[in-house]
Write the structure tokens for this entry.
Amino acid sequence: MTPILQLLRNLVTLRWITGKNAGRNVVIAVPSLFLAAAFLVPFLIVLRISLSDMETAGSPFGGLLSYVDGIVVLKVKIANYLFIAADELYLLTYLSSLKYAAITTAICLVIGYPFAYFMARARPSIRPVLMMLVMLPFWTSFLLRVYAWKGILANHGLLNDLLIALGVVNEPLHMMNTSFSLVVGMVYAYLPFMILPLYANLVKMDMRYLEAAADLGATPLQAFWRITVPLSKSGIIAGAMLVFIPSVGEYVIPELLGGPETLMIGRVLWDEYFTNNDWAMASSVTVLVILLILVPMAIFNKYKMDQDAGKQT
Amino acid sequence: MSTGNNAHSFLQRWFGRGWLSLGYLFLYLPIIVLIVFSFNSSRQDMVWSGFSLRWYSELMSDTEIISGFGLSLKIAFMSATSSVILGTFAAFALTSYQRFRGRTVFSAMVSAPLVMPEVIIGLSLLLMLVSMQKVFGFPERGVLTIWLGHTLLGMAYAAVVVQSRLQEMSKSLAEAAMDLGCRAHQVFFLVTLPNITQALASAWLLTFTLSLDDVVLSAFLSGPGSTTMPLVIFSRARLGLDPRVNAVAALTILAVSIAVIVYAVMLARADRRRRKQLSAAYTPD
């Protein structure tokens, strides 16, 4: 009880903005209050709406607590969750979101690891240029870059024209609006998120370990698998999380490049709100997506904190 | 260095160069395609049929895109500024104060919007705003609500950029200032702030472009009459290819490239100047 009383007293006496630690308290309080209002409270409201009734007239959702004849009634509606659990389509969509996110992460790792590795092993004088070339696309519109793939992968698009001109195929390949175009777009958009943490990790590596391994008779490939890869584990985790978590809920890329059969949870959520106008359902889907990505997010945060702690020592 | 490994390292070097070139080709192909085909005279898919500035002139009379662009600029300016202020506060709290109540939760909340899918952030903000409107009668969805969403997202990015600069900055500078009698706020304004101006500028530019480009949050948080440029582009891109969009793309890429190159040159100059001063300060007379 004491800390709460203390907090209340501090609030009332305004000690936190007048006292000795005033600067520190303001620096912490301002972003905390903003995050509470713009991040935490909205999630609590979503949770609440996901458990409430749609039927009440005038209000978009019913109250959880009601007071009737001296009895407080807590009404929790779990029908939405039961519906999601029973409906195969939702389950399939969750699974297929996870599948596309996993495929994207794996391909990004396969392309991005050697890329980051060769960047880190390039001459120190050209490393900043290589780095800037990876960063530069970040500064140009993500939306427009994804849109450009429509023109490249279309039936009469650039890639098909090229393949026909080279005589590789006679008929244009159907690539647009398939899971292929979706994966190309996702890998394209998220590749820099894999490269950057890996590069930051690999460039810091102590090369003496590799020399020691070579002296002890390891072949370059052995040294790579048994020294470089384990040492870059934290970079791999960071990159994988930065690609995997946002791609589970990706909306823009599936909408522009995916086909009708490429199920993604972000699109279902969007439709539930904008097309079906079903708030409670949209909220329930949101809650389940958050639960789904909470585990990788916790891993990411733990990694980030380890890294922060490492930087300060 | 090593013996008899020349053939191997030669191969490795060329493999590395090849991999990097293909990777960069992949990253830049869509950008090149957009620029080249913005000068295409035909409307047909991506079939080249001659050089033309037709789409640029059509763009100039496209009021939907032009007014959307003005609105996007305004929102981007507002949200970049507020994101950098809030992000700097958060970064400062995380680097300077190792222990305070709720630090773990605070740290998680600051970085969560970086990875949280935007559909989720957008929907939860929207449902909160709608609930608020039911109870208090405000706010209407529009510029201010988009600003709120973009600030939340931008703050996370700004915090990361500023935090990494603060961690690089040696503690000894601040400690020396304290020893010389600076008060905490003097340390901040006289020592810390001048040292992180570059990071603040980078963070501002980054959050500015993020806001200028955002589709999902804007779609959830916009109201009638607040259609930003990405929303216009997105609704056209969903329907198919629109050569005017290529022209918009080419223009934004041009503007951004100029800005980034100028900024990089300025950074390099400032860095060289600082190094010169440092080496001058440390050379004994």
Chain B has a mean pLDDT of 85. Chain B touches chain A through 93 residues (CB under 8 Å). DSSP finds eleven helices and no strands in chain B.
